[in-house]
Amino acid sequence: PAEAQGGKYDESAVSMMAVLCFGTGVPHHGLEALQEDLQTPVPASTQWEALEVFQPCSTPAIPGLMSRSGMRG
Prior knowledge:
This protein has four helices and no strands. The chain is mainly α.
């Protein structure tokens, strides 16, 4: 149906993946396990693909998120 067409993931889901990964330091495999427990599995490789598409609009925020979480680039 027409309403099922469009992006695979809502922008809010992808932004939450970015915040959890870069803002709190949760690795993609950790997010994969959490999402599996919540019955919404998103493999780590799919997360990377989603974040790659999201990257142009998230690039300015990533250094701030990483420094806040203590991660280094």
